[in-house]
Design brief:
Elements lengths: L2 H14 L11 E3 L10 E8 L4 E9 L4 E5 L3 E5 L4 E8 L3 E6 L4 E9 L3 E6 L3 E6 L3 E6 L5 E3 L21 E6 L3 E9 L2 E8 L3 E4 L2 E7 L2 E12 L7 E12 L4 E7 L2 E4 L2 E4 L4 E9 L4 E22 L5 E26 L3 E11 L3 E12 L1
Antiparallel strand pairs: 1-12, 2-3, 2-6, 3-4, 4-5, 7-8, 7-11, 8-9, 9-10, 13-14, 13-27, 14-15, 15-16, 15-17, 16-18, 17-18, 18-19, 19-20, 19-21, 20-23, 21-22, 23-24, 24-25, 25-26, 26-27
Length: 368
C-alpha cells in the first residue's frame, strides 16, 4: 500500500470521527457548586450506613475501597458499600459555619487555608475564621441551579485525559451517519465504540488518572476497520494524553503514531500525530471548543505523468525520492446545552492537505 494512501486514510479517520465529547460528572448541581470538578472539592461529608459521619477528603477510590483523609481520624479505608450518601463542599458553596461560642455565619466558602476557613458573607465581606473555633459546617441547598458540562472528557472527537465517571456514559450522533456509545466501566477506564455507515467500525478504549489538582494523564487507542467487502483496511492510533484544567475549562495535548494494515501489509507514520485541544465555559449553557489535528508524514514523490517509449501516457508515477507533507484538521466552535442531558456541537472545520477546504461539523449527544 502506498504511503500516501496510508496517511490519507489515517487523516480521513481523524476527520470522519470528529464526534462529540463523552459525558462525565453530574447533570446539574446547585449554584453553590459552580466549579464541580474534583479539583474544586474542599472536603466531603460521608454519611455511613452505621450512622457515623466522616468529614474529610477522598484521596483515592476503587471498586473495593475508599481511602479517606478524615479531619479527626487521619487516613482511613472503608468499603464503598458502607457509604450511604456523600455530600461535597465545593469552592463557592453556600455554607453555614458554627463556632465554639455558639455564633453562626452563612456565606460563600472561598478557600480552606492551613489555619482558617475563608468565608464571604453579604454583610461583612470576607472573613477568616480559625479552624480550631469551628465546630460544624453545613452545606445549604439553593433554588437556582447551574448547568454543568455533561461532555467534559472529550472535545469534538479527541479525548482529554479526564476519565468518565463509573457507570456514566453517552450516545452520540454526527451527520446522522456516525453513531457511537461510550461507557465508564471503572473510575479510570472507559470503553467506547461506534459505526460510521457504511464505511467504518471503531473502538476507543481509554484510561485516565488525576495526578494532582488540575492535572491529568491518560492513554488510549483509536482502532478502526472498514466494513466494505473486498476492501478491508484496518488502522489505529495508540496515544498518550496530558490535560491541564478541570471539567469546565481545560487544555489537552495528545500524541501517537498512526498504524495501518491492508492485505497483509503493515504501514505506520514516520512522525507522531499530535492533537491540541481546549474548552472554555463562557455562560451557563455555552462552551467554546477547539480541536486541532496535526499530521506530518513522509511520502514518495509523485509525478503528474509522462509519455512512455510507446507513446502511452502514464499517470501518477511514484519516485524513489521522499518528501515531507503535512495534513491538518483545525476547528473552533461551540457546545450548547439542550435540556437536562443533551448537547449540540457546531464548528467549521478547516482541512488542509494538498489543498484547503472548510466543512461544517454538527453533532448531538445524549447522556444516559
Amino acid at each position: 500500500m502506498k504511503k500516501s494512501t496510508v496517511l490519507g486514510l489515517v487523516f480521513a479517520i481523524s476527520v470522519v470521527f470528529l464526534s462529540p465529547a463523552q459525558c462525565a460528572g453530574p447533570a446539574e448541581r446547585s449554584a453553590a457548586q459552580q466549579e464541580s470538578s474534583p479539583d474544586s472539592v474542599f472536603f466531603s461529608f460521608l454519611y455511613m450506613e452505621s450512622g457515623d459521619v466522616y468529614v474529610g477528603r477522598i484521596a483515592a477510590q476503587s471498586d473495593t475501597a475508599l481511602l479517606i483523609v478524615e479531619k479527626n481520624l487521619g487516613r482511613i479505608r472503608v468499603h464503598p458499600g458502607e457509604v450511604k450518601r456523600t455530600e461535597h463542599i465545593f469552592r463557592h458553596s453556600l455554607v453555614r459555619l458554627s463556632l465554639s461560642d455558639h455564633s453562626k455565619y452563612t456565606g460563600r466558602l472561598l478557600d480552606v487555608e492551613e489555619t482558617d476557613y475563608v468565608l464571604e458573607t453579604p454583610h461583612t465581606g470576607v472573613l477568616r475564621l480559625p479552624k480550631v473555633r469551628v465546630t460544624e459546617i453545613v452545606g445549604i441547598e439553593e433554588e437556582r441551579r447551574v448547568i454543568h458540562n455533561p461532555n467534559s472528557t472529550r472535545y469534538f472527537f479527541a479525548p482529554s485525559a479526564i476519565p468518565i465517571e463509573k457507570n456514566g456514559g453517552y450516545y452520540q450522533n454526527a451527520y446522522l451517519l456516525s453513531n457511537s456509545v461510550n461507557f465508564g466501566l471503572s473510575p479510570n477506564f472507559t470503553l467506547g465504540g461506534g459505526v460510521v455507515i457504511p464505511m467504518l467500525f471503531y473502538i476507543t478504549p481509554k484510561v485516565g488518572f488525576r495526578v494532582r489538582p488540575d492535572f491529568y494523564m491518560g492513554a488510549g487507542l483509536l482502532a478502526a476497520t472498514t466494513l466494505i467487502p473486498d476492501a478491508i483496511v484496518s488502522g489505529g492510533i495508540p496515544f498518550v494524553l496530558a490535560t491541564i484544567g478541570n471539567m469546565e475549562d481545560n487544555f489537552t495535548i495528545g500524541s501517537g503514531y498512526g498504524l495501518m494494515w491492508s492485505e497483509g501489509d503493515f504501514e505506520h507514520t514516520h512522525y507522531p500525530i499530535t492533537t491540541l485541544n481546549g474548552m472554555l465555559r463562557i455562560s451557563n449553557r455555552l462552551h467554546l471548543v477547539s480541536e486541532n489535528w496535526i499530521i506530518p508524514f513522509k511520502r514518495h514523490k509523485i509525478e503528474e505523468g509522462y509519455f512512455d517509449d510507446y507513446g502511452n501516457w502514464v499517470d501518477d508515477v511514484e519516485l524513489d525520492e521522499m518528501e515531507n507533507k503535512l495534513y491538518m484538521a483545525l476547528s473552533f466552535g461551540v457546545r450548547i446545552r439542550v435540556g437536562e442531558r443533551g448537547t449540540v456541537d457546531f464548528a467549521p472545520v478547516y482541512l488542509l492537505g494538498d489543498s484547503g477546504v472548510i466543512i461544517p461539523y454538527l453533532d448531538f449527544v445524549y447522556k444516559f
